[in-house]
């Protein structure tokens, strides 16, 4: 199980690194002015749109622009956090990985639904987008896995924090009862 987890983590790390670079340099060209990007990035993005016949990138429908904003505001920071969390074995990595996976699956369901429903997407384009649905599912499953014993945060309900919470709850109940009588 440990070796499988390492392979999954390696695949996810590669995906997080790719998204960390691609989102601000290429995907953001969908919703930001092209004049703020170097000419080589604009040409590369236009080459991709023409080569893969990505009608969403060419026509920029409103729902797609909104999804790109979602990617830039929510998914990109999560990808950066996941890279950091994975490399430094942070206990919150599973939570951010779960959120990232759920977001990617939702994002890709909308895009693939439009592509398959409109029947405008060639197979070559679908082969570019479909792996991201798999990566999202992989991140979602990885986020659901229990943290490794050495990397977990302290369990809830143990130690002095629970005693403080009980005392605070008791004081709150006393205050409420004294207000009514």
Please name the defining characteristics of this protein.
mainly alpha, 181 residues, 0% strand, single chain, elongated
What does this structure look like?
By secondary structure, this protein is mainly alpha-helical. Helices cover 76% and strands 0% of the residues. It is built from seven helices and no strands. Helix 1 crosses helix 6 and helix 4 packs antiparallel against helix 5. The longest helix is centred in the middle third of the chain and has 26 residues. The N and C termini lie far apart (60 Å). 17% of the residues are buried. About 4% of the residues have low confidence.
What is the alpha-carbon Rg in Å?
Answer: 22 Å
Task: Give the rounded overall mean pLDDT.
Answer: 86
Query: Helix/strand-derived class?
Result: mainly alpha
Helicity range: over 70%
What gross morphology would you assign? elongated
Task: Bin the strand percentage.
Answer: under 5%
Strand tally is 0
Order of helices and strands: HHHHHHH
Amino-to-carboxy terminus distance: 60 Å
* Biggest sheet descriptor: none
Count of helical segments? 7
| Uncertain residue ranges | 151-157
């Amino acid at each position: 199980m440990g070796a499988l987890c390492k392979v999954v983590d390696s695949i996810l790390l590669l995906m997080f690194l790719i998204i960390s670079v691609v989102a601000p340099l290429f995907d953001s060209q969908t919703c930001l002015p092209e004049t703020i990007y170097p000419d080589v990035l604009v040409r590369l993005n236009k080459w991709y749109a023409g080569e893969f016949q990505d009608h969403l990138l060419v026509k920029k429908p409103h729902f797609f622009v909104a999804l790109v904003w979602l990617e830039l505001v929510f998914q990109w920071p999560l990808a950066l956090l996941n890279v950091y969390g994975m490399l430094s074995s942070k206990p919150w990595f599973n939570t951010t990985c779960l959120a990232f996976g759920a977001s990617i699956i939702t994002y890709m369901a909308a895009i693939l639904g439009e592509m398959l429903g409109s029947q405008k997407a060639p197979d070559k384009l679908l082969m570019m987008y479909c792996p991201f649905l798999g990566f999202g599912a992989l991140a979602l499953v990885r986020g659901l896995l229990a943290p490794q014993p050495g990397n977990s945060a302290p369990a809830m309900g143990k130690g002095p924090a629970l005693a403080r919470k009980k005392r605070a709850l008791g004081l709150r109940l006393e205050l409420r009862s004294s207000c009514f009588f």
